[in-house]
């Protein structure tokens, strides 16, 4: 049964609400390499659109011209990048995306689905590269005008499974960073999820695509229909 139909039958609402004043919701997807989050973003966007929501999807780094230039400078190069330079490029891409895509979409009452956001920098450059995670979280807030996701879906995949999933595809610069780096990233994500259990929804990436999608739809449906995140109504 659709979200709107179920809500109508229950007599709850005629129009789905969102957790933000003025409408809109920000849902981010996070995880290590090859977690399958892009597929899940696409499936969720299709479903939400069918349900009548106005949806915007974006990818980090990417989507804007600055984001695409940063993506290529960050991933398609052989040279080593200083960790601070790496972080600065990710933050620049994020600032541009926040200002030109995310903030206007939220103000227009849209549901924004982001394939990676600030938590990626905290996990990869903070826990992975050894820069200060708290300081990176602060820079994320500064660069985005204080944007925080209403819900963050973390798809957890082991480092060895990620390597298997990549198969013969040539690795980019971050994928070449080594198993120990990626183990630190994975542990960093777990720590973030433990620290903010209300914002994070953690899923085992070993599950089949449709099972993951159904768990995601149910959690997102709860967020959008009740107009509250777990932050406001703990389970
Ligand atoms: P993607 O391939 O999932 O789109 O992600 C691009 C790569 O960039 C991936 O290896 C994760 C990495 N990354 C960071 O290290 N820090 C960040 O802030 C972001 C957004 C991505």
Your description of this structure?
With 235 residues, this protein is an alpha/beta fold. The protein has one domain: P-loop containing nucleotide triphosphate hydrolases (Rossmann fold, 3-Layer(aba) Sandwich). Helices cover 52% and strands 12% of the residues. The chain has nine helices and five strands; from the N terminus they run H-E-H-E-H-H-E-H-H-E-H-H-E-H. It has helices at 3-9, 37-50, 65-75, 83-107, 118-128, 133-144, 159-166, 179-195, 209-226, and strands spanning 25-31, 55-59, 111-115, 151-156, 200-204. Helix 2 packs across helix 9 (209-226) and helix 3 runs antiparallel to helix 4. Bound molecules: thymidine-5'-phosphate. Thymidine-5'-phosphate is lined by residues 33, 59-61, 90, 116, 120-121, 124-125, 174.
Briefly, what is this?
This protein is α/β, with parallel strands linked by helices and 235 residues long.
For this entry, give a set of tags.
single chain; 235 residues; alpha/beta; Rossmann fold; five-stranded parallel β-sheet; 9 helices; 5 strands; 52% helix; 12% strand; disordered C terminus; binds thymidine-5'-phosphate
- Which architecture per CATH? 3-Layer(aba) Sandwich
Kindly report the average pLDDT value. 90
Stretches where pLDDT falls below 50 for ≥5 residues? 7-15, 228-235
> Biggest β-sheet: count, sense, barrel?
5 strands, parallel
List the ligand species: thymidine-5'-phosphate
Number of strands: 5
What's the SSE pattern?
HEHEHHEHHEHHEH
- Gyration radius, to the nearest Å? 18 Å
Q: Would you identify the CATH H-level superfamily? A: P-loop containing nucleotide triphosphate hydrolases
CATH topology: Rossmann fold
Provide the helix percentage. Answer: 40-55%
Globular, elongated, flat, extended or rod-shaped: what is the shape? globular
State which percent range the strand residues make up. 5-15%
The oligomerization state is single chain
Number of domain units: 1
User: Which strands sit side by side, in order, in the main sheet?
Assistant: 2-3-1-4-5
